[in-house]
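We read letters as residues; the fold follows as tokens. Both lines appear below.
***
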Amino acid sequence: MLDTVSIQALSQIEIFQSTRVENIRNRIEDFKWRRYDSNEQIISHNEKSKDVYFVCSGFVRATIYTRAGKEVAFQDLGPGQMFGELSAIDGRPRATHVVALTDSTIACLTDDCFWALLERHPEIAAATLRRLSGLVRRLCDRVLEFSTLGIQNRIQAELLRLARDHSDGDNSAVIAPVPTHYEIATRVSTHREAVSRELNRLAKIGLVERQRGRLVIKNIAQLSRMVEDVLDA
């Protein structure tokens, strides 16, 4: 990949957006570039690698498997996002499996190079801390949902999370690629039939619309009220 293209791609990464382009250009040789095909595994749970990965194009999915082999989908990541930083920071094995959902271009740094960036550029370190803070808050929200919400409302909460991740700032969102019913079910600890029923119900009241390869959330505020009313009860 040409350096100019590489620098442009890395400039779109969330934690690099607050730093000067020159800081990325000066470290461009530290990055390694890899292409992954759809469904190709990128990292495996409990492996001892420590590289940090940056999604430049495509989408990837982080999942966890129980000891019984049940899949629990954790998070989908798209262009501008990163993963693998936890192992680089604490030196422990990987916490999740990560698989490419689509053909993807990924840049990666060794843990030593990642730490050097954080130490030399406080603005990148601050952005990384904000990202980790957001991750903790997201996990806290999910713990609360599992403790207080029924299945129907957990599905709504997951749809709301997806809608906010894909919204352009207005009251609607187009989720693409859209998770399958099974994938949504694994995130909220239910079965795909329950997801199908709830999506059908939400479609009947005009809150969602299913299109080819996409799911349109037509009223994020209304979906949010449905979840918050139960949490506040």
Notes: DSSP finds nine helices and eleven strands in the chain.
